[in-house]
Each structure stands twice: as C-alpha cells, then as structure tokens.
Amino acid sequence: MNPPRLRPKIDDWNRDYWTGGAEGKLKIQKCGDCGHFNHPPLQVCRKCQSEHVACEAVAGTGVIDTFTINHQQWFPGVEVPYVIARVRLDDAPNVIVTCNIPGCGVDEVAIGDKVSVTFDEQDGIWFPLFEKAS
Ligand SMILES: [Zn+2]
How far is the CA of 35 from the centre of ligand 1 (A)? Predict the structure, then answer.
C-alpha cells in the first residue's frame, strides 16, 4: 500500500479529474467554446473565460517534460528518493500534470520518456500517476 497522499479539496469542477480513475480514465477539463484544455480545472476557461467547461476523457498517454528527484523524507512512511515529474499529455499538449513515476527506479527516468496513466486510489480519490510505457 502506498503512503497517504494529501487529499485534494473536491469541487464541481475538479471532481471528474480526481475520480475519473474509477472508470480507468484520465479526465481533463475542456472548454466547450474554444476547445482549450484547462488544468488544474477552474470555474471558467483560462483562455476565453467561458463558463462552458467540463471534464472529458483523454488518452492518458504523454511524455516526461522534465523531472526532479526528491531525496528529502518530508513525511513518515514515504520512501526516498522518488521522482517528481512533469508529464505533457499527448492529446492535450498544453496540459502538464505533476506526478510521481512509480514502478521504476529514479535512475530509469529520462526526459522524453513515454508514459501512460495509472491511478493510486485512496479513500475515493484516484490520484493520477504515470508509469513508463512498455
Ligand atoms: Zn475557452
């Protein structure tokens, strides 16, 4: 079992992002007027201020844009070192998700690696993480 993560405050705009993993889907907010993907989700579109925004499923694949390796144990029970990466989504390229890259050593992660979404479910929240694509 993974150590507990900081629980996000759920609202009407981010609920689908944090619970999409129940369906195995990464859901990113998209503007119904201009098509811009907004992340993190907001009440209005960042680009055109439209209130016509809703989350929709994306492919859940992307590329590691950059990363850092954390060596400090900020919380008990959290094993160090671990990777904190920025993942740029393939079908929503303006979206960057900050996450861990579980399932591989910190020396196995490189900028440009292809990754796919996986989820760490904790008490009704499905934290999106990315694993190296096989
Ligand atoms: Zn818009």
Answer: 6
